[in-house]
Amino acid sequence: MRRWGVILGTLTACNGLLGIPGDVADLPIGGDGAGPDVSEAGATVPAAEVCPVSTETDECFKCTDEKCCVEYAGCHGDPRCGQYFQTCIPSCEAKGKTYAACVVECDATNHGGHVVFAPYNACSETHCLAPCAKGKAADLCLQCSVASCIDTMTACYADADCDTFTKCASGCKGGSSCVTACRANKSTSALMKGDALFGCWATYCIDTCAPP
Q: Tell me, what's the pLDDT at 14?
């Protein structure tokens, strides 16, 4: 399944670049343990029962084909998804803004696109960081998140409201009013997921991630 969405491999939870080293699969799992294979309509379904075997020779493409086909189909089938990550995010970053800041900005202009993009991006991060990160610099926050907070990270970043909230709050510099503003108009469920992720970071990743 060769996709227009291969650019997803350059987008990550923390800094917008797949920064996990190739040996991430060997990292110890702590905190909340390992994530599910494929999430479909809230149910956990083994990836092998949903996604066909890929004929791709590129390890990154093959992994996302075989692990995230359900999420990819949802993104690929909605033009708003491409407008969000192929148009808005790159245009925003071209202005010198961080990936996190661009998530907040692009969510404001194309929330629907973010909604359908988020599950695919979260799945790619969870299952395909190692094959998709080869040759890229290590992102220590993301490395720690995968090792110790994978369930909470996946749950949050698959939810556009939680993704936006945590990206926004991570940019706050110790000001409670800033975090309060980031929480505005977000669902209770999204805020609970975000608070759980920040809590996990505070416990396991305080030296590499920056909870507000």
A: 41
